[in-house]
Design goal:
alpha+beta, Aspartate Aminotransferase, domain 1, Aspartate Aminotransferase, domain 2, 7-stranded mixed sheet, 4-stranded antiparallel sheet, 18 helices, 34% helix
Length: 617
């Protein structure tokens, strides 16, 4: 209990009330409602006096400024007397040398609300005594020259706002009118000249530029990017890799590697062999897309094993070129590869131990026929809805089966690779030896189309000369950029960051899921590859509505899955703490609106007109 002006309040009530007042600017009537919803009786006059006396100054100052979350690398603590009260004064010093002052005031049984200001920011903190959270931080930092004081990875477990425990929500973001007039105009032009088969738009929005973890559309609207161009832009936007591309292009923009090799391609192949698991001899084949990479893997499998049959999984996505299209599990190309269809066997991607047993038994039955050369599998099924195989044992048992029948394990790391899950490759979590690994997407960070297939030397050598070559494969500037991406991920420790930040984000989203379980069925993922499964049992468009409403609030999710029922959260690995907080806020706001039936009619209209997504046929 906290004693305040003769009244006694449970400490958590004070904390939540302060959070709501500062974060949303709610009135004391709202605070009273919050307390009553928690079963706490409070004297109206006392609460009124509490709000009037303590919070107008905070609210007035906070509303005048465009604010964000301030974070730092180091915290200095001092116990000082301020305005007659002993307080803990903290100074946060970030990597740029900027400082943020904030304080904890708790002496005996009294708590006071006071803010400290400097030219950079203002903040307010209240101390709790729980065993796992030492403080609840409510911080508002000013943007100075559009640069946020950010990047704190040392404090998340110390300073964390338990968002999902809030019993009332207020909208925090101004609504975006999407698609805007300019986007609509470009959509009309697009439909006149570009064939429909290459378009499955999410929101009807035309994107024009990006900066760090933010993207902007043709109408000037800003979004937090939680799609990364389908998992491609792992380093965000505008970090300088375009200079690497330009420098190499000035020296040699193209050599046509099949005829005339170049140094960047050779160096990149060496690095890929170094960062892929396994001590066996490996070889690399370059291409342009994940799709042609999967083509290459299947061709190598057929040449090496002299068997043409392939096992893959329903709702897997391996591409739409050649052999990758019938290998995919979305029913694409049914009328194109009818003669090949019998060679491409599909099974459900298991989600439980029981399913695991059933699927492995069926796979063994297929292998026993002698016509199967291998299995092509995503370590985490991406477009199928961020499906993680049951642990422990599925991959290990699958690997043993394949060895028993001399078949190959081919892992499609196009979406899961390049540090997104907290390791270079998601298959590293499974601790199995692969025969072939395919990477693309994040390999160049979005700066150039490039793919790579890394496989056992004896398997790759089974391909004849010129059996796998492209004019642009091993393109010098593309390879130079890919090398820079690898170096940047290593230098900035982005795999560890993806692991830590992803775990924290998943924990916060799971708290929201517990509160709105009638809206969000599940939260799952690894690192910064996260899926929120939405309950679409009452309306098949519920997930699209959730995603579209989030986009209106400035968060750009994807939506995938067998029924387009999973929100895909794959932000750049460099996403800021401020952006993460806003993602969590919006995720809860939208769940709250959906539960209360408050999704605007015009949002539903947007969904009916513009929300498509990857369709399973």
């Amino acid at each position: 209990m906290i004693s305040f002006k003769g009244a006694h309040f449970p400490k958590d009530v004070i904390l939540y009330a302060v959070f709501f007042y500062v974060r949303y600017g709610v009135s004391y009537c709202d605070l009273e409602e919050i307390m009553e919803e928690r079963g706490i009786k409070v004297d109206h006059a006392t609460l009124n006096r509490w709000v009037v006396d303590y919070f107008p100054l905070i609210a007035e100052k906070s509303k005048k400024r465009k604010c964000t979350v301030a974070t730092s690398w180091r915290i200095d603590e001092t116990y000082v007397k301020v305005k007659g009260q002993w307080v803990y004064l903290y100074r946060a010093v970030d990597k740029f040398g900027d400082t943020v002052d904030f304080m904890l005031s708790e002496h005996r049984d009294e708590m006071a609300a006071t803010t400290f200001f400097n030219k950079q920011s203002m903040a307010m903190v209240f101390l709790t005594k729980s065993s796992w959270i030492k403080a609840v931080l409510i911080m508002r930092a000013l943007r100075i020259c559009d640069r946020t004081i950010s990047r704190l990875s040392a404090l998340p477990s110390l300073l964390m706002i338990p968002m999902a425990n809030n019993s009332n929500r207020r909208e925090t973001s101004s609504e975006i009118d999407l698609p805007g007039a300019n986007s609509l105009n470009y959509l009309k032009r697009m439909k006149r000249v570009i064939e429909r088969t290459v378009y499955c738009g999410l929101y009807g929005v035309i994107l024009v530029r990006g900066k760090k973890d933010r993207i902007h559309d043709a109408d000037g609207n800003e979004y937090i990017d939680c799609l990364s161009g389908a998992g491609v832009n792992v380093l965000g936007y505008g970090i300088g890799l375009e200079k690497i591309y330009a420098e190499q292009a000035r020296d040699m923009q193209h050599s046509c590697f099949p005829y005339s090799p170049n140094i960047p391609a050779i160096t990149l192949a060496e690095r890929l062999i170094e960062i892929t698991p396994g001590l066996h001899n490996k070889r690399v084949i370059f291409g342009l897309t994940g799709s042609d990479g999967c083509d290459c893997a299947i061709e190598a499998m057929r040449k090496f094993t002299h068997r043409h049959g392939l096992i893959s999984f329903n709702y897997s996505y391996h591409g739409t070129t050649g052999l990758s299209e019938p290998a995919s599990g979305f029913g694409i190309g049914k009328e194109v590869y009818e003669e090949e269809a019998a060679l491409f066997l599909k099974h459900d991607y298991p989600t439980s131990k029981n399913e695991c047993d059933i699927v492995l038994k069926r796979i063994e039955n297929n292998l026993s026929t002698g016509g199967i050369g291998g299995v092509l599998i995503e370590p985490i099924q991406g477009d199928g809805g961020i499906i993680i195989p049951p642990a422990p044992g599925f991959f290990a048992r699958l690997s043993e089966l394949l060895k028993k029948y001399d078949a190959l394990l081919m892992v499609d790391e196009v979406q899961t690779g390049m540090g997104r899950t907290g390791n270079w490759w998601a298959v590293e979590y499974e601790k199995v030896d692969f025969d072939i690994l395919i990477t693309a997407k994040g390999l160049s960070g979005g700066y150039a189309p490039i793919s790579a297939v890394i496989g056992r030397e004896e398997i790759m050598d089974s391909l004849d000369p010129v059996e796998q070559l492209f004019t642009y494969a091993g393109h010098p500037p593309s390879c130079a950029v890919a090398l820079a991406v690898i170096q940047h991920i290593e230098k900035e420790g982005l795999m560890n960051r993806a692991h830590e930040v992803g775990a924290r984000l998943m924990m916060q989203l799971k708290e929201i899921q517990k509160k709105y379980s009638n809206i969000i069925k599940d939260v799952r993922g690894r690192g910064l590859m996260i899926g929120m499964e939405i309950d679409i049992s009452k309306d098949k468009n519920t997930c699209k509505l959730y995603a579209t409403r989030s986009a209106q609030k400035g968060v750009y999710f994807g939506y995938f899955g067998r029924d387009r029922n999973v929100i895909c959260i794959e932000p750049p690995l460099i996403i800021s703490e401020d952006s993460l907080l806003q993602v969590v806020n919006v995720a809860e706001e939208v769940a709250y609106e959906m539960e209360k039936g408050r999704i605007p009619l015009h949002t539903q209209d947007i969904v009916s007109k513009y929300a498509m997504g990857l369709v399973a046929n």
